[in-house]
């Protein structure tokens, strides 16, 4: 089964339509009898210009998948590409440059520098790289995220939702090929979380960005074009055009399997 947002099949999609892909992606922690297989020969394509959510029970491998696709973690076997560039096997210096220039990151902890203003936090990665932002693109991002009147404020002067919007703007500012968001609403109240999800949706629809989000929240997943479901390190299902109710019902099936007697398998990372 395939969709316009992402695919987990073994055939190769055209490079121009795929922001990231993996073939035979395997990640094991430990060795011998104590080894934990977090990802088990995963094949996946993340389509360009789409919003993909990754879900699964605790220990399913969803965060590990994101970290391997983003080059934040090494793989035990298999291959990973960002666009047409294979990142498995890159030297650390090359990988650092690639992440800086082509990937945006959003994490639930925001990771803002407290002594810098919102505007300075937004352009910080480019400042470190010695690059000047495209002023028209930067203005568009700032206005899309509603931050124009907050640029001179430091993080302590911003609400949680505003801080996460700054983190979102920072991820968008360099116009990366792909934005990875790891539980971006995890530290926010429901109203602020909804704001951030709306802005991520807008980044895809209005700015043409590509977003891959790991989440445990069916309501958050409903903002995506496609949900990929992981279990025991494998992609076991997908749901195009998800609704919160449909995602919740699908997640309940994982709970039924997990509660069966004798099912004690766990993984190191979700």
Give the strand tally. Answer: 11
The CATH topology name reads Rossmann fold
- CATH class label: Alpha Beta
The structural class is: alpha/beta
Q: How many domain units?
A: 1
Distance between the termini: 25 Å
Element-by-element helix/strand order: EEEEHEEHEHHHEHEHEEH
Helix content bin: 25-40%
Could you characterize the architecture of this molecule?
By secondary structure, the chain is of the alpha/beta class. It has a single domain, classed as Rossmann fold. 33% of the residues lie in helices and 24% in strands. The chain is built from eight helices and eleven strands. Strands 7-8-9-4-10-11 form a six-stranded mixed sheet, sandwiched between helices. It has a five-stranded antiparallel sheet with strand order 1-3-2-5-6, with helices on one face. Helix 6 links the parallel strand 8 and strand 9 (211-214). It is globular and about 55 Å long. It starts with 5 loop residues before the first strand and ends in a 12-residue tail after the last helix.
Topology:
Layout: E1 6-7, E2 18-29, E3 36-47, E4 51-55, H1 62-69, E5 77-82, E6 85-86, H2 92-102, E7 103-107, H3 118-129, H4 135-144, H5 160-173, E8 178-182, H6 190-205, E9 211-214, H7 218-221, E10 226-231, E11 234-240, H8 244-258
Parallel strand pairs: 4-9, 4-10, 7-8, 8-9
Antiparallel strand pairs: 1-3, 2-3, 2-5, 5-6, 10-11
Helix pairs in contact: 3-5, 5-6
Provide key terms for this protein:
270 residues; alpha/beta; Rossmann fold; 6-stranded mixed sheet; 5-stranded antiparallel sheet; 8 helices; globular; disordered N terminus
């Amino acid at each position: 089964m395939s969709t316009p947002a992402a695919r987990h099949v073994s055939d190769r999609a055209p490079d121009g339509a795929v922001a990231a892909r993996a073939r035979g992606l395997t990640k094991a922690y430990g060795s011998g009898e104590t080894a934990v297989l977090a990802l088990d020969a995963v094949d996946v394509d993340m389509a360009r210009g789409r919003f993909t959510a990754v879900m699964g029970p605790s220990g399913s491998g969803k965060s590990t998948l994101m970290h391997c696709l983003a080059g934040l973690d090494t793989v035990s076997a298999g291959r990973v590409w960002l666009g047409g560039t294979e990142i498995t096997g890159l030297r650390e210096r090359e990988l650092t440059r690639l992440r800086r220039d082509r990937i945006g990151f959003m994490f639930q902890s925001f990771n803002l520098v407290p002594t810098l203003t919102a505007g300075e936090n937004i352009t910080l990665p480019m400042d470190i790289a010695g690059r000047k932002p495209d002023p028209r693109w930067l203005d568009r991002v700032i206005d899309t995220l509603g931050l124009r009147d907050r640029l001179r404020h430091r993080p302590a002067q911003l609400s949680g939702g505003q801080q996460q919007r700054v983190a979102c703007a920072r991820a968008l500012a360099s116009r990366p090929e792909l934005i990875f968001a790891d539980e971006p609403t995890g530290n926010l109240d429901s109203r602020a979380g909804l704001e951030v999800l709306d802005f991520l949706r807008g980044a895809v629809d209005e700015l043409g960005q590509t977003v891959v989000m790991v989440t445990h929240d069916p309501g958050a997943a409903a903002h995506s074009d496609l949900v990929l479901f992981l279990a025991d390190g494998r992609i076991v299902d997908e749901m195009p055009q998800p609704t919160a109710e449909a995602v919740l019902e699908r997640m309940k099936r994982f709970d039924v399997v997990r509660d069966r007697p004798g099912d004690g398998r766990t993984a190191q990372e979700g």
